[in-house]
Amino acid sequence: MMQSSYQTTACVPIELQERSYAIDIGADLLHGMARQAALPTGTAALVVTNDTIQPLYGAALVATLQERYPAVHTVVLPDGEEHKTWQTLNLIFDALLTHGCDRKTVLYALGGGVIGDMTGFAAACYMRGVPFVQVPTTLLAQVDSSVGGKTAINHPLGKNMIGAFYQPRLVVCDLATLDTLPARELAAGLAEVIKYGPIADMELFAWLEQHMDALLARDRAALAHAVKRSCEIKAAVVGADEREAGLRAILNFGHTFGHAIEAGMGYGVWLHGEGVAAGMVMAAELSRRLGLVDAAFVERLTRLIARAGLPTRAPVLDAQDNAGRYLELMRVDKKAEAGEIRFVLIDGPGQAVMRAAPDALVRGVIDQCCAVA
Ligand SMILES: NC(=O)c1ccc[n+]([C@@H]2O[C@H](COP(=O)([O-])OP(=O)(O)OC[C@H]3O[C@@H](n4cnc5c(N)ncnc54)[C@H](O)[C@@H]3O)[C@@H](O)[C@H]2O)c1
Ligand SMILES: O=C(O)C(=O)C[C@@H](O)[C@H](O)[C@H](O)COP(=O)(O)O
Ligand SMILES: [Zn+2]
User: Fold this and answer.
1) Considering 31, 169, 225, 234, which one is annotated as catalytic?
2) Is the ipTM reported for this complex over the cut 0.85?
3) Segments of the chain assigned E as strands
């Protein structure tokens, strides 16, 4: 039998009373996962993954879970943001029922944010709630989506519109899985890491400026630091405001514009991280126009986003009325109230604030930040 190991380089706690859990970070954790005492016990495990990840890491996770569960099943979903739908979600319920899974079945989300969001939502719904564990395999999922319990699917009219707050029991970030991640996906994950700077931690931002080349070269120590610090920030925010009554909305910096880009272009055309990247430039520029930050800050943020290989200009969504189309899509945002769009803005580097802005000002930002058709 293969010798299994489970040695974390870091363990970040997320404090949510009885829903508290750990975020384990380390290399090759997949192989020794059965040894982690915090894994929920159960009658069976269902690994939820997709057709890209299954051949890479499916067997390793199933092998380790077989040491712990009487039965281990796998359901393989089609890959892609365009499949983050009711139809695909039903494939998880089909698998659970076909295998006769009961309330003590534990779901394992093996993949990026799409798999994590859908598995979490399925876990929240199946028999009104079964435990689930996040095993994120993209940088974006390790630094953001696997933590905090936002689960959802998309609607053609808006991103993540149908979902639930439902916390995992454990998050296992195996840094070795990042070795196989396509470069474009690595960059998309860096967008969410960069996000934490302007909203909460300009020291992290300065560290990113110094270590961007190492991150792009997948230096393991640099990645470990980026994942750990991101998870610490997210855990603190979610611990203070689990269901986004207020503070948690800062994690949406760049997302009001970004989600409009994703929905407007058609899910999967722009990656989530790419939409967030261009969206952060737009939100920073809106902050500048409202007198909250200076032009030097917007330039500094734009420079770092470009160095990560991410877009700094947004796409044109409608050749006739581009700004109108952005505004229409943004009014569907979950932060909007009575049709009024509320943006996460930067109120001085490291400090976020949520505010509405006059349409004319927003139109000006869109006109300035969009690529020429
Ligand atoms: N719940 C949250 O708090 C939260 C936070 C941020 C983003 N999200 C959501 O997460 C999604 C984006 O997540 P994502 O960027 O991980 O995208 P993703 O889940 O689509 O994964 C990106 C691509 O990488 C592939 N992949 C994953 N791991 C791999 C690996 N180790 N090696 C090779 N290929 C691998 C996937 O199959 C996919 O093709 C969006 O739907 C977004 O809305 C949710
Ligand atoms: O965890 C959060 O809160 C976030 O906002 C994190 C975001 O990076 C993530 O994309 C989230 O899914 C967006 O939330 P939504 O409520 O706008 O769908
Ligand atoms: Zn995001």
Assistant:
1) 234
2) yes
3) 10-14, 21-26, 44-50, 72-77, 105-111, 132-136, 150-155, 158-165, 170-174, 342-346, 352-356
CB 204 within 8 A of CB 350: no
pLDDT in tens, 320-370: 999 999 999 999 999 999 989 999 999 999 999 999 999 999 999 999 999
Structural domain includes residue 188: no
pTM: 0.98
* Residue nearest atom 14 in ligand 2 by C-alpha distance: 252
Which of the following is catalytic: 73, 228, 272, 288?
272
174 lines ligand 1 (CB under 6 A): no
* Number of domains, the chain: 2
Residue nearest to atom 16 of ligand 2 (CA): 334
Q: Please indicate, yes or no, whether residues 164 and 202 belong to a single structural domain of this protein.
A: no
Q: What are the tens digits of pLDDT across the range 124-173?
A: 999 999 999 999 999 999 999 999 999 999 999 999 999 999 999 999 99
Domain span at 49: 10-180
